[in-house]
Amino acid sequence: MNVAVTCALGLVVVLIVCAYFLVRQNRIIKTLRKQNSEFITLCDLIQAPIWFKDKDLKLTWVNQFYALMFDKDRSYFVGLTDRDIAPKKLVEGYIRDDLYVLESQNVYRYRENEKAGLWFESVKFPLTGKDGNSYGVGGIAFNITAIKKSENMLHKLVHSDYLTGIANRLCLSVEAARYLSESDAAGQRLAFIIVDIRNFSNANKMNGHVVGDEILKLTAERIKTALTDYSVLIGRFSGDQFLVVLKNCNDEDVISSAVSKIHEGIATPYQIFGGAFAVSVSMGISIFPEHGLDYETLIRNADIALLSAKRTPSADKYTMTYSEVMGMGMNKRALIENKLSGAVARNEFALFYQPKICEETGRIRGIEALIRWNSPDFGKLMPDDFIPIAEDSDIIVTISDWVLRTALEQNLSWQEKFGEMYPMAVNLSRRQISKPDFLSKIVNLLEDLNYPPHCLELELRESVLSHADVRILKDFGELREMGVKVSVDDFGTGLINITNLKTFPLDCIKIDKSFISNISKSPENQQIVDAIISLAKTFKLSLIAEGVETGIELDYLKQSGIEDIQGFYFAEPLNVDSMTDYIRRKNNPEF
Ligand code: C2E
Ligand code: CA
Ligand code: CA
C-alpha cells in the first residue's frame, strides 16, 4: 500500500514537473517564434541585402531585399552558393572571406566596388553555436555608392586642379613628400622638374583667357602622355607652371630622356578653336638628394634653375639643372629682380620702425620707416640686398608708393592709439622723385589719408640732391611750404657739395653712421662731425646723428651739442608690435 501510494505520488510529481517543463518549453518556443518573425520582419525592412550561410557556405536564408536584387523568390536561394549567383571575378574573394570568418570567428568588414560605379560596404560575421563552434556565416552589405561619390568628389576638389584635372599644388606637396621618403629608403634619386610655358602671359593677353585655358589643359595632357612610360607625379604648380617629379633617376639618362619627351610631346602645334598655337617650355631641374632633401628646398632650387634657364639663351632647350646654375655662379641679382616685381602684390614686404630720440628730453623726436622683404624664395632680405636692384627699374616706384602709404597709415593708427603723432620719415629714391607725378602722388595721399603734412619727413641721400633738376627743386619747395620736412641722409659719405645745402629745400642733416662709430677715438671723424655741425649752423639746418651704438659715442655727441640721436643705443629698427610697445613705454611717465 505504502509502496503503491509512494509510486502514485511519485508519478504525480513527475507528471507535474513534465507539465511544467512542457508549458515552459512551449512558452519559449512561442517567444522564439515571435522573436524570429520580428527578426525576419526587421531584416526584410532593411534596404540592404542580408544573408545567412551554413558551414558549407550554402545559403540558408536571405532577406527580401536580397531576393529582389535578383528578382527571384526568397526560397530560390536556399542551398545555393556564391558560385551559383555571384559575379565570377568576385566568387573566390567571397569564399576566402567566408572561410576566414568561419575559422577565425572574427567580424570582417570591407569595401568593394562590385560593379562599375556601385560601391558596397559589407560586414560578415560568424554564426556561433552554444558549443562555441561556428556553424555558418551571416552577412549584410550596404550600398555606399552615394557616399563614395561625394568622397571622391571631395577628394578631387581638394587634390586636383579644377582646370586641367591633374594634381594641384596641395596634392603635389603631399605626394612628393611620399615620393621623397620612398626614394630615400630605396636609395634612389628623384628629379623635380618645373615646366614653364614660355610667353604664356602674352598668349593669354593676345588670344584671351579661353584660349589660355585650352593651352594649359592641352599642355597638361601632353606632358602626361609624353611621360606614360615613367614613374612620375605630374601636377599644376602655379598659373603656367607644371611640376613633374620623376622617380628612379639614378641613371642620369632618365632625366634627359624625360626632358626630351616633354619637349617632343608639346612640339606639334595645338589646334584650338580653329587656330594653331605653337607652345614651347622652359624647365628648371633640381635633384634629390644633391640639391635638397625636402620638398621646399628642391622646389626653390628647381625654380632658381628655371629662372636662369629662361635668362640664359645658351641653356640647352631652355632647360637647366640647379647644379649648372651653381656652376655658373648664377647671379642672385637677376633672380632677385625677377621675384621683386610681384612682391608688393604678394604682400611680401614689411616695414620696421626706428625711433629718433631727443637725448635731452628722452622723448621720441620722430620715427623712420625701414623696409624688409620676407621673400619665400630668399628668406628675409634687408634693404641693401634689394633696394639697389629695385632702383634700376620702376619697381622702386611701386615699392616706394607702398612704403609711403603703409608708413603713414601706421602712424595714423598710432596717433589714434596714443593721441600723439611723431614725424614719420621715409626714404626716397632718385628714380621716384624724377617721376613727373611725384608731387601729386604725395599730395593726393596726404589728402586721401587726411594726414598732417608736418608729420611727414622725406629722407634723400646726398647723391640724389646733386641730380635734382628745376622741377624736382620746385616740387620739394612746394612740399616744404605745405609743412613736409626734408632731410639729407648719409651726409658726408659722398662728395659734399655745399651748393646743394644752399639750393635744395632742406630742414635737417643726418650725419652718417660711419663718422659716429668710435668717434671719441678718431680725431678724423671728430673733425668731420665738427665741420658738419658748423655747416648746419651756417645753413640753419637741424642735425641728427645716426648709427649711435654706445654711451661713449652718445656723450661725445652731447658735448658737441647734438641732441637728436638715432641708433641701436636707443633702439634697433622694430616691427610694428615692438614699436607700439616702445611708444607705450615712452609715453608712460614712469618709464
Ligand atoms: P638709412 O636710411 O641710412 O637707414 C639707416 C640704416 O642704418 C638702417 O639699415 C638701420 O637699420 C641702420 N642702423 C640704425 N641704427 C644703427 C646703429 O646703431 N648701428 C648700425 N650699424 N646700423 C644702424 P637698413 O634698415 O638695413 O637700411 C639700409 C638702407 O636701405 C637705408 O639706409 C636706406 O637707404 C635704405 N632703405 C630702407 N628702407 C627703405 C625704403 O623704404 N625705401 C628706400 N628707397 N630705401 C630704403
Ligand atoms: Ca634714412
Ligand atoms: Ca642713413
Q: What is the count of distinct domains?
A: 3
In total, the number of strands is: 21
The CATH top-level class label of the largest domain: Alpha Beta
> In one word, what is the shape?
elongated
Helix content: 40-55%
Range of strand content: 15-25%
Sheet of most strands:
8 strands, mixed, barrel
**Class by SSE composition:** alpha/beta
Q: Which stretches are low in confidence, meaning pLDDT under 50 for 5 or more residues running?
A: none
CATH superfamily of the largest domain: EAL domain
Mean pLDDT across the residues is 89
Widest sheet, order of strands: 13-14-16-17-18-19-20-21
End-to-end Cα distance: 122 Å
Q: CATH topology of the largest domain, which one?
A: TIM Barrel
CATH architecture of the largest domain: Alpha-Beta Barrel
Bound molecules: ligand C2E, calcium ion
Number of helices: 23
Taking all Cα atoms into account, the compactness measure Rg is 41 Å
Structure notes:
It is a single chain. Strand 18, helix 19 and strand 19 (508-511) form a beta-alpha-beta unit. The protein folds into three domains: 32-147, Beta-Lactamase; 160-322, Reverse transcriptase/Diguanylate cyclase domain (Alpha-Beta Plaits, 2-Layer Sandwich); 341-587, TIM Barrel, CATH 3.20.20.450. It starts with a helix and ends with a helix. 50% of the residues lie in helices and 22% in strands. By secondary structure, it is an alpha/beta fold. The radius of gyration is 41 Å and the shape is elongated. The chain has 23 helices and 21 strands. An eight-stranded mixed beta barrel has the order 13-14-16-17-18-19-20-21, surrounded by four helices. A five-stranded antiparallel sheet has the order 2-1-5-4-3, sandwiched between helices. Helix 7 crosses helix 8 and helix 14 runs parallel beside helix 16. It binds ligand C2E and calcium ion (2 copies). One calcium ion (CA) binds next to loops.
